[in-house]
């Protein structure tokens, strides 16, 4: 890319990253999918797999540190399960979407046409590669800020979840099983709001049961928002169970 093209590509990226995207070649590498590189003539531009390797370690360390500080009473095994629930392909892809990183992703034509800009595996790799680039140029504190900007909501959602729930992290299934064990009525999900630009949408979803709204969740997709709402509902119901059982509608 020549200088005008680079400047146009990088416009606004500093606000998303929290640091200036310099050296620009390093950040171009972080945002370059292998499919883009493979379609270019020699010498081909570097793609983001090396930075993904570094970013995987950075993201893992940030999340492990957060969990270690937030849960001083949890065992090593429980912390490991919680980390697996926070750091997985779907969660990292959701973080990348929420932050709008896919707007700067460089894809090959075939991958673009195949929907690669929304593919979880591509966005997860992108999130890790960018974390690696931020760490390389600005150090751990800046990388931690970047990582938590994408994953803080997920860490907060799991803050009160049981270790067993965190290990499974399919909150919708758990909620349905729990409620239908009480009464053969499935929970209902309703989209309350869709906000943000096309490349960084935020969905707000409410979950109700027997006419009672249990919780409201948010996410970068309808599915993610439903999972967040279900997890918050499970946390509420767990608290109510300890106080004597779920409330009936209208109580």
Question: Which features would summarize this protein structure in a list?
Answer:
single chain; 251 residues; mainly alpha; three-stranded antiparallel beta sheet; 10% strand; globular
Terminal-residue CA separation: 63 Å
Contiguous helical run count: 13
Radius of gyration equals: 20 Å
Overall mean pLDDT stands at 85
Give start-end ranges of low-pLDDT stretches: none
Structural account:
This protein has helices spanning 3-10, 13-17, 24-30, 34-38, 49-70, 76-86, 89-99, 109-113, 120-138, 140-157, 163-168, 171-182, 222-242; strands at 188-195, 202-209, 212-219. With 251 residues, the chain is mainly α. It has 13 helices and three strands, in the order H-H-H-H-H-H-H-H-H-H-H-H-E-E-E-H. It is globular. The relative contact order is 0.12. Helix 5 packs across helix 6 (76-86) and helix 7 (89-99) crosses helix 9 (120-138).
């Amino acid at each position: 890319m020549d200088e005008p093209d680079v400047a146009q590509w990088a416009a606004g990226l500093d606000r998303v990253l929290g640091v200036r995207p310099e050296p620009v070649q390093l950040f171009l590498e972080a945002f370059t999918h292998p499919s883009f590189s493979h379609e270019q003539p020699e010498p081909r531009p570097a793609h983001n797999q090396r930075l993904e390797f570094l970013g995987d370690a950075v993201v893992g360390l940030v999340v492990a540190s957060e969990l270690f500080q937030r849960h001083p009473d949890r065992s090593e095994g429980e912390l490991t399960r919680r980390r697996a629930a926070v750091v997985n392909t779907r969660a990292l892809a959701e973080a990348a979407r929420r932050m709008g990183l896919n707007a700067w992703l460089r894809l090959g034509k075939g991958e673009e046409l195949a929907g690669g800009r929304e593919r979880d595996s591509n966005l997860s790799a992108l999130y890790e590669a960018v974390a690696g680039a931020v760490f390389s140029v600005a150090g751990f504190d800046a990388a931690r800020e970047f990582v938590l900007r994408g994953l803080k909501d997920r860490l907060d959602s799991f803050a009160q979840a049981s270790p067993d729930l965190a290990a499974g992290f399919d909150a919708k299934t758990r909620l349905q099983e729990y409620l239908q064990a009480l009464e053969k009525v499935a929970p209902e999900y309703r989209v309350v709001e869709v906000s943000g630009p096309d490349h960084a949408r935020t969905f707000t979803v409410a979950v109700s049961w027997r006419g009672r709204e249990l919780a409201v969740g948010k996410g970068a997709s309808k599915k993610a928002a439903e999972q967040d709402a279900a997890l918050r509902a499970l946390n509420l119901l767990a608290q109510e169970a300890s106080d004597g059982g779920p409330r009936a509608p209208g109580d």
